[in-house]
Amino acid sequence: MRVLGKKLPVLETTAAWLLAALWIAPLAYAFWAAFHPAAMATHFDLLAPLTLDNFRKAWTYAPFPRHFLNTLILVTMVLAAQLVLCTLAGFAFARFDFAGRNIAFGLVLVQLMVMPEVLIVENYLTMAKLGLVDTILGIGLPYMASAFGIFLMRQTFKTIPRELEEAARVEGCSMIGVLWRVYVPLARPTYLAYALVSVSYHWNNFLWPLVITNSVNTRPLTVGLAIFGAPESGVDWAVISAGTLMAVSPLLVAFLLFQRQFMQSFMQAGIK
Amino acid sequence: MKNVYGWLLLTPAAILLVGFTHYPAVATLIDSFFTTGTVVRPSKFAGLANYASLADDPIFWQVLRNNLYFAAATIPTSIAIAMLMAIWVNDRLPARALVRMSYFTPTILPMVAVANLWLFFYTPQIGLLDKVGAMFGAASHNWLGDPSTVMACMAVMTVWKEAGFFMIFYLAALQSLPPELEEAAKVEGASRWYYFRRVTFPLLMPTTLFVLVNATINSFKLVDHLFILTKGGPDNASNLLLYYIYQVAFSFFDTAYASTLTVVLLALLAGMAIIQFQLIEKRVHYR
Q1: How far apart are CA A32 and CA B271, in angstroms?
Q2: Contact at 8 Å (CB) between B28 and A119?
Q3: Domain parsing of chain A, residue ranges
Q4: CB contact under 8 A, A92 and B9
Q5: Quick check: A147 contacting B, CB < 8 Å?
Q6: pLDDT tens digits for B229-271?
């Protein structure tokens, strides 16, 4: 993002700040509620004592450690599989002129529009047949062959000069060797961008994990959070805030540290 | 040899794509022509019966209307705010990084967490909205329990969540505009508003179209918040198509009808895909 730029007029600067304050307010409010005694959640008082009690309670009210572990397993597993599958498929589309390539590519792109969460009914039936209901693998499997990932890898591999590949071939590299030694290292920025998008997506994904899981041992954070935050669970607001912040904090911290990469990756994901 | 290698590399991804995208899409269509099977009564061909009950289902029409309302209420507002945000943070202002961060942060939060945070604003009496209202003497209001306010509540929350995401596309577009344009406008003595209306806004049009289509598609997929805030209620006033599909399939266990509803959703998404594809084509010719 460009550092230079002309100065914003004073009036608009003020408006921009006000909007920023308004935009961060819900989150700031959640922070405030989470770090103060429950009784203070609705009484704004700067001198209210700070406490970590809400976090302690949230941690024990719901099986958060288990949800964290499930989400970690899920995002790692999905990302690892995506990287392998999308690299192979993207390489095929970028460098092999096989029969039916264009049709196959068109069929891949269908998934950009018809994401697995739209097909929850049939995918649930498939998972039931495979015996994968209520497993973490069941949550991740429909997302492993990602059309976006395949598309992204194809575009990236296409920009890599063929001369590099030919040079490696002359040196006696096999097909897979060329992919591993030439294409993959050169595509590192794409992998990073894709990983950010994939991890954020699956950290936050809700509908399909909700449908396919029904026990603590498989539910990811979002599903755990929804059960925990449901009004009928009777947990008070301060504790819900604390739980919500705990669930989003890893991603939030990562975002604060790598803002620029996040924004650029999200943009790439949007544009396709 | 090229054929063998190409398909070999593609096979693992292809199996999963066919298994979880193409097969279920086709199976959905087929199931929509059958009845839901039970242990005692196996599923049998029903022709267009499911579609007939769909046409007679007032909830279906209501969720479709709600979806349209949701799209109409959230998309233009988030686009306008996103454009404003982008124009502001594209220029130099004190604490620019902080401002940009505030705008973008809601984007990385899961919708479930967003709903949790906003639930408290909307809660009657103790919620922030009622507290502020009370300061001005307004009576307490059940914002999420009233069919006339519930959709607006959803819309405000969604705009908050989405505007920052759309901002980054405008930011990228603004940064690709040649700086000479602005200098020329300055020399001519054009006001900032005039410059925006006559230069920036038209030049951002391709981005706006792109965001518009993407936002429309998103609006059909965004249902997570309903699980926390309203469960589609009161009386389906905030129900959306995908959430209704979930209810029919997993609460009422009517797979065939859920498939029929899914066919409608797929048709809508396909229609938007065609529009999007044509836009991309146009954009390519543009350059």
Answers
A1: 45
A2: yes
A3: 69-271
A4: yes
A5: yes
A6: 888 878 888 899 999 999 999 988 888 899 999 999 999 988 8
